[in-house]
Write a structure and sequence with these properties.
alpha+beta, Beta-Lactamase, Rossmann fold, 4 domains, six-stranded mixed sheet, 25 helices
Amino acid sequence: MLPETVESSCPDSSMALIEPDAKLIVQEWNAFVRSGHRPTHVDRPVLHSWQRSRDFGVDPFGGRSELILSRQELEDRLERSRLLIDVARSYMHKIFDAVRDQHHLIYLTDEYGNILDLFGEQADKLAFERHYNFRIGASWNEQAVGTTAVSVALHEDITIPYMSSAKYCYDLKVTSCAAIPLHGEDGDVMGILGIATASRHLSTQIFWMLVSAQMGIENRFRLQRYEADIRVVSQQFQALYNAVSDVVICVDDDGRICRMNSAAEELLNLKSERVSGQQVADVLDFSPLLLQPHHQSDAVREGFLRDSRKRIYPLRHEIAPSPGSAEREHIYIFGNQGAAVRGGREQLTPPIVRSCYQFKDLIGAAPCFVEVKEQAGVAAGCDANVLISGASGTGKEMFAQAIHAAGKRVRGPFVAVNCGAIPKELIESEFFGYASGAFTGADRKGRAGRFEQADGGTLFLDEIGEMPRELQVSLLRVIQDRQVSRIGGTRMIPVDVRVIAATNKQMQDEVRMRNFRSDLFWRLNVIDLQLPTLAERRDDIPLLIDFFIRKHGLQRDDYRMEGAVRKTLLAYSWPGNVRELENTIERVLVFARTGTITMESLPLHIRSASLGDMGAPAVHSLEQGEMHQIMQALQAHEGNISRTARTLGIARNTLYKKMKRHGINCSES
C-alpha cells in the first residue's frame, strides 16, 4: 500500500504525498482497536506495529508521548550520538532553510527513537510540543506513541515515505510524517532522519531532500571510517617509523629536511619541527654526495652523517622516489654509529666511530684545562694505555675521542663501552664474544666481543671502576697477552687494541679497599689525566656559554642574555660540570622564544642557589632573612616586580605587601 501524490496547497510544492484508501485504513483501525479484527488492507509492517503497540498497552486514542528522558539521560544520549548529530545537523539546517514557511519539522532520532535534534519554525515546534510532547528528549518509539513512521522505520529498517491514517494513535492521524533510517559504516541503524507536519499533505520536495540528505550523511560516515582507518595506518606507520633505532631522515628534491624519526632527534639533538624546511647542509654534517641524483635502488651509495659530537653514522639504505611518481621525498637510513659494515664482514652491535671529537673541539682557556689538554696531546702521540679521571660531566669521553682522533689509530674503530651499564651476567660475553652454540639463545654464527670489534683502534672503557672484580683478571690477561678467546671457543684471536679507561672514582682508594685489582690499575694507569671540574676552571664558563648558545641556538643568531642571568650562571657552583652547563643553556634557549634569555628560563634549583649565594650578611630572624632575600631578588632583576615575584614563587600582590611591611622600595633595592 504505497503512498501516491496529489495536488497540494503547500507553498513552493506542486505535489504532495497522501495515503491511498485512507478511509478504509481508518475503518480497519477502528475494527482492530475496538474488536480485535485483523485488518486485510493494511501493509504487513503496519499490522505488526499495531499488534506490538496493543501489546505495549499504548492508548489508541492518545498520541502524546509520556516517555521523556531525564536531563542526565538526555546528556548521555547526546554525547553518545555526537557524531550522528554533528554530521546530520548541517543537512537538516540546509533543508530547513530551503523550505521555510512550509510548516514542516525536520527531526533526528537515535536508534531507540529518542528525539535528538529538531528544526522548524518556532510556532510549529511549540504546537507539536503542546499537543504531542514532540520535542528533544521525548521518545517516539512504539512503547511511547505506537505506530509512527519512526517506529516502523526503526523496526523494519525501511524507508517510510509517508504515514498519516496508518498511525496507531488516533490524535496523530491528523498529522503526517516520513522517516528514513541512517546507517553507520557497519550497516547498523544509527538513527532516523524524518519530517513531520500538522496536515495530511506531506511535501514531496522535502521528502526527496531527505533522501538526498540520507545519502550525504551515510557517505560522510563511510568517509570518516576511511579517514579513521587512514589515521590508524598513519599512526602505526609513525610508531614503526619512530621505533626504528636507525637514524631516518627525509629530504626533498631541493635538499630541504622534510622530517626525521625519534632516533634521529635524540642522537642528533634536534627537533624535527624546528629544522623542517631548512637546507640539510645548513643543519647537518651531511655527505654532499647523497644530494646528487641516484636512481639505482638496488645499490647502496657510500655516504655518512656526522652529529654534533663528530660521531659517524654510515648510510645503510636509501629510498628514492619511483620514476614518474609525484612523491619527491628521498629517505636516508643511517646505521647507528657504524652498526652497518661493508664487505660481508660480521655485523657489529656496539658503537664504532671512525672520526671523533678533536682537540679543537675541547673548549677552554683556563690554565688547569690547557695543561691537561696538552698532556692528552702528548698521550695521542704514543700507544700507551690512558686512565682519565674526573667528575661526571667533565668531558672524559671527549678527551678519549680526541686522543684517538689525533693518534695513529684514527683510521681504526673507536669502541665505547660503559662498564657500569652492562648486566653482570652478560659482561663477559660482551667483552670477549662467544662462539657458535656457546649457550642457549646464542647467535648460531657466534659474535665478536668488544676487543675484536676495536681491533686496530681504541677501546674506551668508561666507568672502569664499576668493572666486576671477577672479570678484572680476564681483562688484565687480554691487555697483557693481546689476544682473546671467545666464550665456548678454543681459538685464540690476536687483537691490536689501545685501551683508554675513564672513571669518576678515586682509583687508588678502590685499590686499597680491594675493590679493584692493583695489577690491572697499574696496567691501565700508564698515562694519568686528571680533568678539572668546571668550578676549578670558572674562567671558562663565559666561553662555554657562548659556545653552547651557538651550538644549540639554531633558530636564530641574535640571542640576548639578561645581565642577571649571566651573573647567576657565573656564580653557580655547577656540580654537574660542563654537561650540566650545556643542558642548562639548551633549556634556556627553548624558553627564550623572543630571543631574550631571562631568569625565568633558568631551572629553579639554579635560581634558588643564586639567591642563596649573594653574599648576604648574617641575619638573626626570619623577618630579616625575608627582607634580605626580597632586596637581593629585586636587585638581581633591576627592580622588575613581576620577575622578582616569579623568582620568589609568590604573587605580585603578596610581594607588594611584604615590601610595604619591610619598608622596601625599588629605588632602595
